[in-house]
Write a structure and sequence with these properties.
- It is built from 7 helices and 13 strands.
- Strands 1, 2, 3, 4, 7, 10, 11, 12 and 13 form a 9-stranded mixed beta sheet that branches. It has a two-stranded antiparallel sheet with strand order 5-6. A two-stranded antiparallel sheet has the order 8-9.
- The longest helix is centred in the N-terminal third of the chain and has 15 residues.
- It is about 25% helix and about 30% strand.
- By secondary structure, the protein is of the alpha+beta class.
């Protein structure tokens, strides 16, 4: 990770890989726009390409790779790398979005679920998996985003697709909450994993916390907090932000 204060205008144009810890409730688009605006305002650059290597939902936090200038051509390289997430699945209820974006629509019993059942499911849910993406997603069908169908109350058939789960570790069980750490391929929806988790345990479940911790060799432990990035990039131009 480059020291922001030492980067020149040309460095940003030539290309930088910047890693951020995305704040809760920010969209990936908002973070990219903020970084682009800060670079243009605090470095003598009127126009610069800035893009990200993989979306995070607003209710998720964690690692986002943002590339500038000529390095935006490398975004696909990062998108294809394995990702690691930590989070919490709450058993006993489902939501249409598979997370907290929508309210619980169905409740299910959990008394029959044992810790052995939970560990067994996590062990079995590894390798090549056929997963159905959530309807509340940005995937397109017939020229429309899936979430557009969902918000209009329209039913749509979503085919399953193959993903790969390298590891699925249970890190805490305090019913109805189950904490996990998972390493997975591009295209994996952790919200769908949570939904499948509930079904596999003959109950229901939804995702209540999510944090992306790694993309390939990049770790959130080395990522910029947005406030730190703002402070560093404005040191040479300490105007209003």
């Amino acid at each position: 990770m480059s020291e922001i204060t030492s980067l020149t205008d040309q460095d940003f144009r030539d290309g930088q890989v910047l890693i951020f810890d995305k704040p809760l409730e920010w969209t990936s688009f908002q973070l990219v726009n903020k970084v682009r605006w800060l670079i243009r305002k605090n470095r003598n650059i009127k126009k610069i390409k800035v893009g990200h290597a993989g979306t995070l939902d607003p209710l998720a936090t964690g690692l986002m790779i943002i590339c500038t200038g000529k390095f935006t051509k490398r975004l696909h390289e990062f998108m294809g790398q394995e990702k690691e997430y930590t989070g919490t699945i709450t058993l006993g209820g489902t939501t249409p979005s598979y997370d907290l974006e929508t309210a619980i629509d169905k409740e299910y019993p959990t008394e029959h679920i044992t810790e052995e059942d939970i560990y067994a499911f996590a062990k079995a849910y590894q390798g090549k998996i056929m997963q159905r993406p959530p309807v509340f997603s940005a995937l397109k069908k017939e020229g429309k985003r899936l979430y557009e169908f969902a918000r209009a109350g329209e039913e749509v058939e979503i085919p399953k697709r193959e993903i790969h789960i390298s590891s699925f570790e249970i890190t805490r069980i305090e019913m109805p909450e189950v904490d996990f750490k998972v390493s997975c391929s591009k295209g994996t929806y952790i919200r769908s994993l949570a939904f499948d988790f509930g079904e596999g345990l003959k109950s229901g479940a939804h995702l209540t916390a999510l944090r992306r911790t790694k993309i390939g060799d990049y770790s959130v432990d080395n990522a910029h907090l947005l406030d730190d990035f703002i402070r560093e990039i404005t040191q040479s131009n300490p105007g209003d932000i």
